Amino acid sequence: MNITVAQLIAAGVGPAQARTFVDPLNAAMDRFDIVTAPRIAAFLGQCMVESGNLVHTEEGLYYRDASRLALIFPSAFRTAAEAAPYTKSPQKLGARIYAGRNGNGDEASGDGWTYRGRGLLQLTGRANYADAAVGLARPYLEQPELVAQPADACLTAAWYWHVHKLNALAEANALDEITRAINGKAMLEAGLRRQYTREALLALA
User: What was the pLDDT predicted at 115?
Assistant: First the structure.
């Protein structure tokens, strides 16, 4: 089955985003067999949380408050004073917080900024971009900004879903396990992800 603009709106997506994403979403979901109501609803629920209801396809890294930075990224900053030079500087911050992670080089390489979170499920890190590039035959390492465009934002999300075998978890209604596969131990907004999934299921009914 495919999702319609009206169903996306009923699930909580804004009208403009629904019109922009309906075709790329359906193409990506068809490609990776996200075609039953439980699969579509769970996929959409996760994508909506990760992208702010399909509004943001690129990670925002602009922070004004050093204390908040230290709180959010404790592995990168031990104190607010240490975080202060990275406020109001998204490029510098991205290079720091993602250095040496997910296949990225050190802070000086700038990989953390270049391969920051993009797409509906926030593909992050050189290694993940490289895997998606191979899996989808797309030039993501050379042109990482492609992942923020609607077609590739949807395609990389559906590819990640497929690679992590999340269709089976969706059919089993194992929503927290899906959240763990996407968000890791943090399980951020797990309740909201369940809520969005339920609302999407109602919209698809």
Answer: 98
Sign of CA dihedral 14, 19, 201, 60: negative
Q: Report the candidate in 45, 53, 2, 7 with the shortest Cα–Cα distance to residue 23.
A: 2
pTM score: 0.95
Looking at the domain covering 5-57+119-126+149-204, what would its CATH class be? mainly alpha
Distance CA 75, CA 140 (A): 27
Q: Is 122 helix (H, G, I), strand (E, B) or coil?
A: coil
25 alpha-carbon distance from chain centroid: 14
Q: Where do you find CATH 1.10.530 in the chain? A: 5-57+119-126+149-204
- What is the Cα–Cα distance from 94 to 40, expressed in whole angstroms? 32
The set of residues, in sequence order, having a beta carbon less than 8 Å from that of 163 and lying 6+ positions away, is 131, 135
SS (H, E, C) 44-100: HHHHHHHHCCCCCCECCCCCCCHHHHHHHCCCCCCCHHHHHHHCCCHHHHHHHHCCC
- Count CA atoms within 13 Å of residue 183 on its CB side: 20
Q: Could you report the per-residue pLDDT of 6-65, keeping only the tens digit for each?
A: 999 999 999 999 999 999 999 999 999 999 999 999 999 999 999 999 999 999 999 999
